[in-house]
Amino acid sequence: MNTHELVRTAQALVARKKGILAADESNPTIEKRLQSINVVATPETRRAWRQLLLTTPGINSFISGVILSDETVRQKSDGGVSFVDVLASQSIIPGVKVDKSTRPLANSPEESITEGIDGLRERLNDYRIMGARFAKWRAVFTIGPHIPTSYCLDVNAQAMARYAAICQEAGIVPIVEPEVLMDGDHDIKRCFEVTEATLYRMFDELVGQRVLLEGMLLKPNMVLSGKSGANRAGPDEAAEETLRCLRRTVPAAVPGIVFLSGGQEDYEATINLNAINRRGQDAPWQLSFSYGRGLQSTPLKAWGGDPNNVERAQQSFQHRAQVTSAAREGIYTPAMEKETKAVGSR
Ligand code: 13P
To answer: What does the pLDDT read at residue 266?
Structure first.
């Protein structure tokens, strides 16, 4: 294992002012996103959307790496250049989602298990040859009256750590993404409890399977009130609780935490990241982002599937990335948001 390279790559992904674009939606998920703008999902429309994002001028000032899907990692730009090379030529690190999505958990079907360990070693070697230098694996935990169970936390933590260990063996930085969903009417205290239990279990297993903490990144949810809850906590409380939870559970050796946006409104994802960075100046890890919807929702609407709107959508994406980068530094202001909205809705 080339530990120096792993550590260097992990650090580069959380370089100051920069974060990650998650453009790795599975085909069913990107189909839903494209349907929302009345575009039929095909390999070609998915390619057109991802090309728009990856060729946005100046994006490398704000984006350190992009997570691609297995389909996109094999696709090319209109000019015949592989998307991996399109990124590498801008000094953006190419990554790939390697899990095979979730299935109902046997004997607890309300919960899910992430699959994809079979054949992973071989797939990672192929991705590495194609140019990928980091990977992502997502486990999903739903909050309910009696879930998540410790059974669900255990099996997902074991799979996640196994994935991370195999990635590092292949010279690929693993991003581990244990997502506690914000769906539901639970309060922020309940989200704290579940996120804390999940991360404790996760790191116990990562250490047990000898994962190099300096050569990985954590992609967690923020600690938030449930989406449909009453009196939802504001950004200050969310930031306090998120940092309190992470300080308890995440070893200081991990170079960075890259939050997912998880269905927050663009504005909410930005303002919460800003609040976390303002309060977390003395945190031992970089506090950055790995947003999917938080970076793509506004530009997707600006595009609407129309080739004439490519430039407008790219401006919108550029601004979205810029304000998220400002939030990652704790220097975001609402005035910047107005500017973004103006671009996105022109
Ligand atoms: P969201 O930011 O839209 O939650 O997507 C991040 C991601 O990679 C989900 O796996």
So the answer is: 86
Atom number in ligand 1 closest to CA 262:
4
- Comparing CA positions, the residue from 270, 261, 287, 262 lying closest to residue 326 is 270
pTM: 0.96
Band (pLDDT 50/70/90 cuts) for residue 346 is very low
pLDDT at residue 271, as a whole number = 96
> Would you say 163 and 155 are in contact if contact means Cβ atoms under 8 Å apart?
no
Atom 1 (ligand 1): residue with closest C-alpha? 292
**Main-chain dihedrals φ then ψ at residue 103, nearest 5 degrees:** -135, 160
CA 291 to ligand 1 center in whole angstroms: 5
Supply the pLDDT for residue 339: 63
Strands 286-291 vs 19-23: parallel, antiparallel or unpaired: parallel
> Which residues line ligand 1 at a C-beta cut-off of 6 Å?
22, 138, 177, 260-262, 291-294
- Distance from the alpha carbon of residue 32 to the mean position of ligand 1, in angstroms: 14
> Taking residues 169-176, what's their average pLDDT?
98
pLDDT(97) > 80:
yes
Q: How far is CA 159 from CA 141, 172, 201, 246, in A?
A: 14, 17, 12, 21
Q: Which of 32, 291, 324, 328 to mutate to test ligand 1, by most ligand atoms within 8 A of the CB atom?
A: 291
Residue 156 in contact with residue 205, Cβ under 8 Å?
A: no
d(CA 82, CA 207): 36
3.20.20.70, 3.40.50.300, 3.40.50.1000, 3.40.50.720: CATH of 3-344: 3.20.20.70
- How close is the Cα of 289 to the center of ligand 1, in Å? 10
Q: Catalytic amino acids?
A: 177, 219
Write out the two tokens for 197. Answer: 């239990």
* Each residue's pLDDT tens digit, 122-162: 999 999 999 999 999 999 999 999 999 999 999 999 999 99
Is the per-residue pLDDT at 335 higher than 80? yes
